[in-house]
Design a protein that fits this description.
Layout: H1 2-8, H2 12-29, H3 31-41, H4 63-79, H5 86-106, H6 109-114, H7 116-130, H8 140-146, H9 148-167, H10 177-181, H11 184-190, H12 205-224, H13 237-244, E1 251-255, H14 261-264, H15 266-270, H16 277-280, H17 296-299, E2 307-311, E3 314-318, H18 321-327, H19 345-349
Helix pairs in contact: 4-5, 4-9, 9-13, 11-12
Length: 350
C-alpha cells in the first residue's frame, strides 16, 4: 500500500497539490455535487477561506458564523446582560465544535493544504515564476511589521466590530466586516462565473465602502501573488485564528538541532511564508505561528531526520538527503522550476 502511494505521489508537494485541487473543487463548486443541504451541514467544519458568497460552494469558512455569533449573540447579550446564559454560550460552543474537532485532527494544515484562496495565490505565484517575474521575499524587518496585522484583523474585524454593531455603537453594516473586505469574496465567486460580488452594495454607505476596499484588496492580492508568495496569508485572520489552537492539535512541525543549520538556511528559502525561525530555532520555537504546515521546509532540508511533519508520535514525513537531491532536480527551494531539457534521439543513445 505504501509503495503504491509512493509511486503515485513521489513527493510531498505532489500529494499536497492533489489535496489542494480536491478541496479547491469541493469548496468552490462542491454544492453541485453534495447539494446545498449537505454544504450547509459542513459549512463551519473547515476553517479555510471558502467564501459564502460563492453560490456553488461545498462549504464556507468558519469566520462567517463566528462574526454572526459576535453580532447576534454577544452584542445583544451586552445590551441585555441578564440573558447572558446558555442561550449565548451554547450556540457559540456549537458553532466552534465542528471546527475544533476537525482542527484537532488536521491542525494548521488547513492553511497549507485546504484553503482555496491559499491555493489560488500559490498557483498565481507559479505563473509569475514561469514568466520570469522576480521573487520578492520579506526579510526580518518587514516581517516584524507585517506579522501583527493578522491579529489586528482577527481582533478588529472578526470580534470587536461585530460586537459593537450588535450593541448598537457601530453601524449595522459592520455586522460582518471581514467578509466584505476578504479577497476570497471576489476571487472564488469569479471562478464560478458569478460577477455579482464585484458590484458595490449601494444600499448602505458603510458596506459600500467596505465592498470598495474589498475589491482593492482582491486586486492587490492577485497582482502581488505573481511576485510574492502567499501575500494575503501573511495578514489573514484565519491564520491567526488557527495559530491560537496550534498547540492543541497533534499535527505539527518538529525540528531538532543540527550544526549545519546556522550556515544553511535552505528551509527558510523554501518556506512560502519566509519564516526565518525555522532555520534559526529548533523545538517549539521552530514551529512558528505563521507556519501553514505545507511541508516545504522538510522537503528541502538536506539533512536526514532534522525536520519532520508529525501527527502525535508518528512522523508523517521526515527530511532526507536523498529526497532533497531528487527534489531539487525539478524545482529549487524558492519555487523556481527548472526548464525541461529536450535531448535529440541520437544524443540520448550516445
Amino acid at each position: 500500500m505504501l509503495e503504491t502511494l509512493r509511486k503515485v505521489f513521489p513527493t510531498v508537494s505532489r500529494l499536497r497539490f492533489t489535496v489542494q485541487m480536491a478541496m479547491f473543487f469541493l469548496m468552490v463548486w462542491g454544492s453541485n455535487v453534495v447539494g446545498h443541504y449537505a454544504a450547509d451541514k459542513i459549512s463551519t467544519a473547515l476553517p479555510a477561506l471558502s467564501c459564502a458568497y460563492d453560490k456553488q460552494h461545498g462549504s464556507y469558512c468558519v469566520l462567517i458564523p463566528l462574526q454572526h455569533q459576535m453580532h447576534h449573540r454577544i452584542g445583544a447579550a451586552v445590551v441585555k446582560a441578564q440573558q447572558v446564559t446558555m442561550q449565548v454560550v451554547l450556540p457559540i460552543l456549537l458553532t466552534m465544535a465542528t471546527f475544533l474537532a476537525f482542527f484537532f485532527v488536521v491542525g494548521k494544515a488547513f492553511c497549507g493544504w485546504i484553503c482555496p484562496l491559499g491555493t489560488v495565490q500559490e498557483l498565481l505565484n507559479k505563473v509569475g515564476r514561469r514568466f520570469n517575474r522576480p521573487l520578492h521575499r520579506l526579510q526580518d524587518g518587514n516581517l516584524k511589521k507585517v506579522r501583527p496585522a493578522k491579529w489586528v484583523m482577527l481582533l478588529g474585524l472578526i470580534f470587536a466590530l461585530p460586537i459593537l454593531a450588535g450593541v448598537g455603537i457601530a453601524p449595522h453594516g459592520l455586522s460582518n466586516p471581514y467578509c466584505d473586505v476578504c479577497p476570497s469574496r471576489i476571487v472564488t465567486t469569479l471562478l464560478t462565473a458569478d460577477v455579482e460580488e464585484i458590484a458595490l452594495k449601494t444600499g448602505d454607505s458603510t458596506r459600500m465602502l467596505l465592498n470598495a476596499l474589498g475589491n482593492i484588496v482582491a486586486g492587490f492580492v492577485v497582482v502581488a501573488a505573481l511576485a510574492i508568495r502567499q501575500p494575503f496569508c501573511r495578514i489573514c485572520p484565519m491564520l491567526s485564528f488557527n495559530s491560537l489552537f496550534q498547540r492543541l492539535s497533534p499535527m505539527r512541525l518538529s525540528k531538532v538541532k543540527h550544526e549545519s543549520c546556522e550556515k544553511c538556511g535552505v528551509c527558510t528559502q523554501a518556506c512560502p511564508m519566509d519564516i526565518p525561525e525555522i532555520a534559526r530555532e529548533h523545538g517549539r520555537k521552530a514551529y512558528h505561528e505563521d507556519c501553514t504546515l505545507c511541508g516545504r521546509c522538510a522537503e528541502y532540508c538536506p539533512q536526514d531526520g532534522v525536520i519532520k511533519l508529525k501527527w502525535g508520535p508518528f512522523a508523517l514525513f521526515s527530511s532526507s538527503r536523498e529526497y532533497y537531491k531528487g527534489r531539487v532536480k525539478g524545482e529549487l527551494p524558492d519555487g523556481t522550476v527548472k526548464p525541461v531539457k529536450f535531448v535529440k534521439r541520437g544524443e540520448a543513445n550516445a
